[in-house]
Predict the 3D structure of the following.
Amino acid sequence: MSPAEPRGTYGPPPYRAPEGATWLHALHGNVPEHQIDFICCPEAPQGAFTHTHLGHLGRLMPYIDPAGGAPFAFAIGNLSRDDTQHEPGHGAIALLFGLRMIGETDSLGRPDPPLAHAIVAVDRELTADALLAATLTLHGHLLGGAGQCTPEAFHRQYVHAMATSPADVPDFLAWYFAGFHDLPSLRASTLARHLSRSTDTRPRRIFLLLDGDHTFARIARAASRIAAILYRSGQRWTAITFGSRVDIAGGLSVAFVPSPPDDFGPDDLVLRLADLPEDDSGIARALLLTRPLLQRMKDFPLRRTPRPQRAPRPGDTSSLLQRLLRRSQASTPGMPPGSAAGATRSLGPVSSRRTPLSPPSRPGWRNAVLTAGDSEAPLVSRTAPPRAVWLHLGVFATLLILASASLLAARGRTTSHPMTPTAVHPQSHARPVH
C-alpha cells in the first residue's frame, strides 16, 4: 500500500496453497500505515477451508503474543469449534507462533511490534506424531534459523516493500512461504472418534503446571498428544497455549503455566505436567473427565460363563414340578432317591452361593407353595418332567374330562325330553245335597 492511499482500504493479500498441499499459511502483525492486522491470510473458501475457519483464526492470532518477557508464544487452535456438521477426527487445526520483533518499531514508533505465523491443516490425519513434527519444524524455521530468513529480517523487508512497491508484496510473501517446504505432508483424515466421551461438557480451563525442566520439545510433545485426543473427541475446545493466554468464551482451553492464575475458578483444573499420563486413555481420564465408550461386541472375546440362576417367582413351573417330584418320591417307597438325578442339578452348599431374593409375599396358598424353601432347594434344569409327574397330570386330566362329559350328557337329556304338563281341574265348591 502506498503512503498516498487512504486508510481503511487495506485488504490483506490472500494465500492460495498449491494443489494437494497440506498446510495453509497466515501472517498477522503490524501493517505499515494501517494497524495490527493480517499481513497475509488464507483465501476462503479454499478446499475444505471455510469462512468459519478464517473467522476463528482471526480471533486467535491477536492473542498469540509473548507475555512476561518470553521469547515466543505457542498455541494449537481449534478452528472447527462452531462447524455445523463437525465430525470427530475431522476439521481444521492451526499451529501458531507469536514473536516480538526486538529492536524494530512500527509505523507509529512503538517498539518491538508483534508478528504471528500460523499454519492450518483441514481434514488431515492429525495424529500426535504429525502435530509434533509440524510444530518442531515450524519452530525451527522461526526460532532456529532454518527458513529463508529470520522473522526479524522478514519484517524489515516486508516494511520496506510496503513503503516502496506494494505491488511486489504478494511475490515476496510467496518467496517467504516457499521456504517451509519441509513441513510434513499428511493424507486425508481417516481418523474415527476417540473411544472415550466426556461426562462433563461445561466450558472450563485446564492448567498444566511446569516444573524446573520444561524444554519446548517436552511441552510440544504434551500439547500434541492432548490436541490429537481433542481432535478426535466431541469436546468443544478453543486452544492449547504456552507463553500466552487465550480466553475465548464457549469452549475448553488448556494452558501450560508456571503457577495457577489468580482468577482460578471452581470449574478449572490444575495438574502438574510431570503427572500427565503416558497413554491416551489416561490423558483423557485425567484432563477431560471421560468414560470409555461401548465398543462393538465383536471386538470383545466371548466368555462362556454359566447363566446366572434367577430367583423363583410366583407361577414358575420349574418350582412346581420340583415339589411334585419330591412329593412323588416321598409317597413311592420303591422309587430310588437318585432316579431323578438327570432332572436336578446341584449347585453346591447353600452357604457357598448367593441366596436368591424372595418374591413379594401375596395372600393365598399359591404363593406359599411356590416360594417356601426355595433358597435351600436344588434348582431344576430345563429338561422334560419325570414319568411320575406325567402320570399325576394324566389322571387329573382324565377325571376332568369325564366329569365334563357327564355334566354335558345330563344337560342334554334335560333339554331333549321335557316333562309333559299335567292338567289341573278346578275343584268344585258346591256342597252335596242331603
User: Anything to note?
Assistant: The two ends are 162 Å apart (CA to CA). Residues 14-292 form one domain.
